[in-house]
């Protein structure tokens, strides 16, 4: 699925197809494919505000 990220280096906000999204036992996000900035190719990112709401919805929809 696509999630919305913000690059820590150049601040670009971008959608990235991360494949399967899951959560480990402490609720940390795990991605099948980790994003790379479309502009500067950095692997340093964080979830944008929109990305965080996407992940929260996903987490809420998980059973157990
Ligand atoms: Zn960047």
Instruction: Assess the beta-strand content as a share of residues.
Output: 25-35%
**Category from helices, strands and their pairing:** alpha+beta
Strand order of the largest sheet: 2-1-5
Total DSSP E strands: 5
Order of helices and strands: EEEEEH
In whole angstroms, how far apart are the ends?
Answer: 21 Å
Task: Let me know the average pLDDT.
Answer: 94
Description:
- This protein has 64 residues and is α+β, with helices and mostly antiparallel strands.
- It has a domain at 1-33.
- It has one helix and five strands, in the order βββββα.
- The protein has one helix at 49-61, and strands spanning 2-7, 13-17, 21-23, 29-31, 45-47.
- Strands 2-1-5 form a three-stranded antiparallel sheet.
- The radius of gyration is 12 Å and the shape is elongated.
- The mean pLDDT is 94.
- The site of zinc ion (ZN) has 8 residues, from loops.
- The site of zinc ion has 8 residues, from loops.
Short note summarizing the structure:
This protein is an alpha+beta fold and 64 residues long. It contains 1 helix and 5 strands.
Topology of helices and strands:
Layout: E1 2-7, E2 13-17, E3 21-23, E4 29-31, E5 45-47, H1 49-61
Antiparallel strand pairs: 1-2, 1-5, 3-4
The structure holds zinc ion (ZN).
Question: Which terms would index this structure?
Answer:
31% strand, 64 residues, single chain, alpha+beta, 1 helix, three-stranded antiparallel sheet, 5 strands, binds zinc ion, two-stranded antiparallel ribbon
């Amino acid at each position: 699925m696509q999630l919305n990220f913000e690059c820590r280096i150049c601040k670009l906000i971008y959608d990235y197809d991360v494949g399967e999204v899951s959560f480990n036992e402490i609720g940390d996000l795990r991605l099948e494919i980790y994003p790379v900035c479309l502009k500067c190719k950095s692997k340093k990112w964080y979830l944008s505000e929109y990305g965080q709401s996407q992940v929260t919805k996903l987490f809420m929809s998980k059973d157990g």
